[in-house]
Amino acid sequence: MPRTSRRGLLFGTAAVSAGAFLTACTSNEPKEKNTAATSGAPAADDRPGKPVTIGFAGPQADHGWLNAINENARSRAKKYSEVTLETTEGSNDTAAQIGQVKTLINKKVDVLVVLPADGKALTQVGLEAMRAGIPVINLDRIFASPQAYRCWVGGDNYGMGLNAGTYIGEQLKDKPNAKVVELAGIDNLELTKQRSEGFAAALKNYPNIKLVARQAADFTVESGQAKMAQLLQAQKKFDALWNHDDDQGVGALRAIQQAGRDEFLMVGGAGAKSAMDAIKADNTVLKATVLYPPTMAASAIDLARALGQGKGVAGLAELEIPTSLTLYSAVVTKDNVDQYLPTGFN
């Protein structure tokens, strides 16, 4: 992803269930009927509570996953009649986004949800909001100081690589001298490093499998096609491919089909609908994808609503919402794809 597209950003069951888990967001029930109230915590549910204005500063929608982040936030806010969502023009420009967040602060929104173009660069404006009494939900790309946000919600990049590697390992565990290649994202991004580290850690459990080649792409269809073509030319035969991103995976599949190669299995990353459709059809080398779901933006809206209404999270006894929520990277295969298709993004 470009520095501000998913390059810099980038729950299985958790992604889907967090909706049910977190959407339970405000309760007006009497305490005797409120489970969490028995321990002093105001529980949450879907019924309207006091009005809340949420400021949302999201990314520029120049990538499928990033567009889905914005769509998830908007659609979730519409679910609540008492929630007003103040949105900014999505921006990949750090200075522009800082200005947009300052505008939301000046409007005195009740809660901020920010997916920063650059977490480190926007830390100061996060601190400014918190000092102004506006709690911040930091979405995915983390600020440099925990004082700059009240709660962080994001994906598990290391777990994404770990689960992709474990799936591939289990498919190839009985194959002697198995060879694997990796089509990574942008190497100077921490998320790419974490995904590769998790993948390498998983493969250590399968001594018969060797990573023989790795190429970094750019989270775009074009880069995926070009870099995959290079891998295919250099590696005349291998057994599995892990591709970090389903957008660049569209290009990778084109290169694979153009080369007439089908001797290996492919695992994608993120959870695009196109990838899930291909997995369901089972007519390409793509057999699985590891989720990094944009539903995290809907969960962030749920948490922002709970904060604005002074509620906890249903199912938890605590008075306050958690300080962080790391989403689970489920592996989607033909066996469970129908369960996850509703979360797929275009």
From TrEMBL:
The keyword DNA-binding does not apply. Residues 1-20 form the signal peptide. Keywords: Signal. It comes from Streptomyces castrisilvae. Belongs to the bacterial solute-binding protein 2 family. It holds the Pfam family Peripla_BP_4. It comes from the Bacteria. It is found in: Cell envelope. InterPro entries: Peripla_BP_I, SBP_2_dom, TAT_signal. Its main location: other. Residues 30-50 are annotated as: Disordered. Residues 54-311 form the Periplasmic binding protein domain. This is Substrate-binding domain-containing protein.
